[in-house]
């Protein structure tokens, strides 16, 4: 069967050599009796097992550096991570920098404060990690001006109120997985960025999973789910079968919060560049390429390996494809997946990412010791557990997380000065400043061919190498502007309003923008029931009533697509496909009145 190979190098001779070496190991040591095969340490660090970049030494140095706010200790940590001459754990370890311009003073490099806003912490849900771990990351990123990510687990409303000292626990990035897991109008309204989860870092290509024993009463309430029942988000989300479906969800979310960027998270894989091009055409503002070696979070340990590819492969392909198709300047490209040092960030920028996600390293700064017990709810340091006794052991501090991002930013700025770059934007996509290392002696590493990663696609006329223009989401002509004008007395004075409008199927999303405006003022409470009663006659588009809020009744006489009503939260949606609407269904406080089933939707 056909196989896509991005890094050629292993021939028949090399395969034979490795096979014979394994055979020798298995059968030649007759003087050493083994009852079973060695564990190997692929998942959890073992003294004589697989080499891990995060090991007792590097974890200690990173935690010591950030707790003491000592950059010299951090440099010891980063040198151990960056120097993989003996143990090559990453593709980027095979790169070296090459400069085509004179070095500059670090004082000429753009200030760190400009760079902090390009960082995000990875999508780890409240549930996969503890309240303490989750909120500590949010506080730290808000202090820096970066972004923390809720993960798909929603967010407790108390985090939207600033703390007495001025800190904020609010996560700037809100993740959605097919509008499930606590996605309400308020959740979306309280976002600076909304991320559609089409891939998952801990086990890319499989989706997220929270075991039932980690879903306690608090988690269940926050995620609008049932305590004790496992939560899984499969990758082929149940309402996204094509780029067109994705485009509709992007449009829905933009209506739900027009101030927020819409981000689509993809997994690094062969062909992801073509997928990313479709996502940009679907009007995403940000595309995230997630690497294959993210942390476990709450995923089954057996699912962590053998899914997805290194971010270096997916990122390079995505950037090259977008440049070739004159799409690159329309979208921000992010990358994440075990980024640990400023060198990692610099390489990501040179391969095409102007923003970067850091997750596992940030958790280690909070106290994680990589026990790989996340899925068991027995984390001994209170990071990845909901057990109240274990959570008391959490020792993380936002100051430590802030120190970590300061350190990797400083290391990035040092590299920028060495290469002669004054701004991050100058670096984006400049892969000619990387070359394959010339000092490699290992018999396998020398065979690698990384030319496809390092290829620099020439800039096309009319497009740049980084995001420089905004997507046109087509919001200026939506029907909701007429609804909003009619709703003004209700929103400003609480008066009841009734109005009627014709509707056609090109009115793709109706009611969502109005709900966003109500939510800005009245939060999750919304308006009293039936304060707004809008009647429509005709054919509704894909998302009639999407992310509706309390107090809004949308009554349709006509027919509707099977996609409507998603994310209703206590709102009333009435649809009359014929003149005899009798049936009433109650589900999750959603009141839907209809006459029959339309297509796949039970409405």
Please write out the topology.
Blueprint: H1 12-27, H2 56-68, H3 71-82, E1 95-97, H4 112-116, E2 119-121, H5 131-144, E3 173-176, H6 185-189, E4 193-197, E5 208-210, H7 217-222, E6 231-233, H8 243-256, E7 261-267, H9 272-281, E8 286-290, H10 311-324, E9 332-336, H11 342-351, E10 355-358, H12 360-366, H13 388-391, H14 398-419, H15 424-427, E11 434-436, H16 451-454, H17 480-493, E12 497-503, E13 509-510, H18 512-522, E14 532-539, E15 543-544, E16 552-559, E17 572-576, E18 583-587, E19 590-594
Helix pairs in contact: 2-3, 2-14, 5-14, 9-10, 11-14, 17-18
Task: Provide structural commentary.
This protein has 603 residues and is of the alpha/beta class. Helix content is 31%, strand content 14%. The strands form five sheets. Strands 2-10-9-8-7-4-3 form a seven-stranded parallel β-sheet. Strands 12-14-16-17-19-18 form a six-stranded mixed β-sheet, covered by helices on one side. A two-stranded antiparallel sheet has the order 1-11. Helix 9 (272-281) links the parallel strand 7 and strand 8. The two termini are 44 Å apart. The model is unreliable at 578-603 (pLDDT under 50).
């Amino acid at each position: 069967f056909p196989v896509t190979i991005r890094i050629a190098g292993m021939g028949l001779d090399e395969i034979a050599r490795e096979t014979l070496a394994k055979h020798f190991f298995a059968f030649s040591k007759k003087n050493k009796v083994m009852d079973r095969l060695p564990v190997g340490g692929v998942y959890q660090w073992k003294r004589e097992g697989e080499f891990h970049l995060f090991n007792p030494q590097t974890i200690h140095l990173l935690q010591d550096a950030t707790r003491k706010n000592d950059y010299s200790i951090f440099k010891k940590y980063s040198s151990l991570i960056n120097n993989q001459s003996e143990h090559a754990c990453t593709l980027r370890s095979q790169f070296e920098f090459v400069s085509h311009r004179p070095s500059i003073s670090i004082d000429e490099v753009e200030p760190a404060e400009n760079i902090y806003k390009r960082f995000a912490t990875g999508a780890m849900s409240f549930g996969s990690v503890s309240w303490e771990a989750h909120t500590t990351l949010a506080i730290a990123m808000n202090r820096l001006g970066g972004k923390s990510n809720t993960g798909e687990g929603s967010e407790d409303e108390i985090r939207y109120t600033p703390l007495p000292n001025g800190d904020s626990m609010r996560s700037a990035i809100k993740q959605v997985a097919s509008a499930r897991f606590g996605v309400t109008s308020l959740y979306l309204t309280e976002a600076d960025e909304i991320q559609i989860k089409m891939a998952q870092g801990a086990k890319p290509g499989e989706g997220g999973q929270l075991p039932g024993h980690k879903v306690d009463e608090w988690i269940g309430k926050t995620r609008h789910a049932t305590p004790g029942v496992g939560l899984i988000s499969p990758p082929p989300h149940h309402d996204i079968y094509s780029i067109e479906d994705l485009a509709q969800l992007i449009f829905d979310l933009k209506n739900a919060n027009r101030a927020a960027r819409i981000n689509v998270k993809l997994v690094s894989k062969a062909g992801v560049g073509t997928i990313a091009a479709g996502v940009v055409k679907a009007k995403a503002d940000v595309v995230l390429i997630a690497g294959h070696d993210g942390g476990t979070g709450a995923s089954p340990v057996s699912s962590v390996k053998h899914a997805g590819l290194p971010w270096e492969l997916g990122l390079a392909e995505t950037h090259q494809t977008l440049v070739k198709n004159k799409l690159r300047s329309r979208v921000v490209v992010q990358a994440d997946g075990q980024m640990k040092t400023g060198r990692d960030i610099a390489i990501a920028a040179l391969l095409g990412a102007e923003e970067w996600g850091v997750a596992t390293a940030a958790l280690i700064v909070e106290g994680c010791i990589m026990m790989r017990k996340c899925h068991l709810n027995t984390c001994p340091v209170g990071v990845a557990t909901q057990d109240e006794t274990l959570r008391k052991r959490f020792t993380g501090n936002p100051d430590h997380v802030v120190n970590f991002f300061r350190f990797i930013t400083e290391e990035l700025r040092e590299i920028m000065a060495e290469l002669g770059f004054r701004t991050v934007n100058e670096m984006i996509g400049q892969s000619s400043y990387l070359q394959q290392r010339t000092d490699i002696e290992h018999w396998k590493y020398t065979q690698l061919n990384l030319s496809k990663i390092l290829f620099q696609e020439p800039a096309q006329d009319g497009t740049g190498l980084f995001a420089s223009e905004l997507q046109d989401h087509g919001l200026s002509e939506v029907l909701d502007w007429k609804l909003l004008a009619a709703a003004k007395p209700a929103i400003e004075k609480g008066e009841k309003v009734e109005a009627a409008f014709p509707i056609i199927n090109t009115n793709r999303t109706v009611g969502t923008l109005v709900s966003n405006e109500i939510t800005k003022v009245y939060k999750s409470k919304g308006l009293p029931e039936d304060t707004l009663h809008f009647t429509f006659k005709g054919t509704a588009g894909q998302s009639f009533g999407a992310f509706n809020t309390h107090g809004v009744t949308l009554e349709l006489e006509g027919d509707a697509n099977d996609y409507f009503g998603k994310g209703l939260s206590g709102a009333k949606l009435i649809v009359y496909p014929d003149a005899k609407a009798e049936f009433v269904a109650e589900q999750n406080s959603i009141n839907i009145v209809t006459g029959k089933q339309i297509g796949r939707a039970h409405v």
